[in-house]
Amino acid sequence: MKKNILIISLLVSVLAIFSNCKEQRAYKALIITGQNNHNWQASSPVLKQLLDQTKLFTTDITETPAPGKDMSTFNPEFAKYDVVVLDYTGDAWPEKTKTAFVDYVKNGGGVVVYHAADNAFTDWKEYNEMIGLGGWGGRTEKDGPYVYFKDGKQVSDSTPGNGGSHGARHEFKVQLRNTEHPITKGLPSKWLHAEDELYSQLRGPAKNMEILATAFADTSKGGTGRDEPALFTITYGKGRIFHTTLGHCGNGDKNFPAMECAGFITTFQRGTEWAASSVVTQSVPVDFPNSASVVQWPEYKPLSLDEIVSEIEKYDVSKSRKYIYDLQNRLRSADGNPEVLLSYEKLMVKILESNIATIDAKKFVLRELSWMGSDYCISKLKKLETSDDLKDEVKFALTRLQPSK
Ligand code: ZN
């Protein structure tokens, strides 16, 4: 019996050490670029920013030699990384690099296939098994079936023809086909994606592949009239691959709406975490798009806390509670951390003192302060004790914050 307790307590200590290590250690990500029929000079730094701003990753970018140059020196140390993000389509890699990459994935390395990376390496068998589906580059029926959704069911279609097409760029809806996968769990079942190319007629081995989301390629936009795979996963050996066809970044373009889309950004960040670790710990941003409206984030960043506070100031009970929920979630997750709670408390007191904040916003703030407020807010609350609109909520908060009085 004693022995069992000893083993259990040892196990608990080991697990605690392990989970502490995990919290402290960021995943290492490597973005491979340097050749692409897209604006890789613009897209790769953005992809790095997107990963680094989650605070889950430290991200390196490596560039291959330019097209036509000697590729023999290109040999990244894949094994140093938890996940490799491919923003590359171009010259073949040296055989030893290809072998090292295949070994890396077989042994459990994560991969993210971003947009035109699925145009690459038509003749590399293992690569095509990793990406599941690809397009262009001379792909035909010899490379595998077309895969799409029809009448709500996944279809594998061996009709002869070229792989890869897209119509004019436009906004389109992305529809989830799996709402329980770690990458998609908690996202709306349909959301509007900013202007992008809708990759269609992809074909490939499609082995060990799961489609997470599709997009309907409307014939009025030059599309196929099919629900085409937009987000999918593949397993290869022990490796996990996340493939997003979204995120066009055009040569000569000044703006990159597809990359600014909160839906693209969020699924890219979540998909990369999953590929690195098999889990997703990121919450869904408050302003994730729904099926009615596109959400673009200037400079590819989610709303800051200040922006959320300014939205809360406008709150009334008839409005969406999403910003309220966001602040509540932040407060709940900071419970037990007085420094962080105090920083929120100061912002909340500003809402109370604001001339433009609504009464509903102030009532919400008072309810939250009643459990997490410190001495900092008490004197400020006392000034509101005679407010006609707020006196009940103020009294409630003060009673909870000063139980002895
Ligand atoms: Zn493109």
Task: Please supply descriptive tags for the structure shown above.
single chain, 405 residues, alpha/beta, Rossmann fold, 2 domains, two-stranded antiparallel sheet, 11 strands, 18% strand, binds zinc ion
List the helices and strands and how they pair.
Layout: H1 2-24, E1 27-33, H2 40-52, E2 57-63, E3 83-86, H3 95-106, E4 110-114, H4 125-131, E5 146-150, E6 153-157, E7 170-176, E8 190-196, E9 209-216, E10 227-236, E11 239-244, H5 257-260, H6 262-277, H7 305-313, H8 322-333, H9 338-353, H10 359-372, H11 375-382, H12 391-401
Parallel strand pairs: 1-2, 1-3, 3-4, 4-11
Antiparallel strand pairs: 5-6, 7-8, 7-9, 9-10, 10-11
Bound molecules: zinc ion.
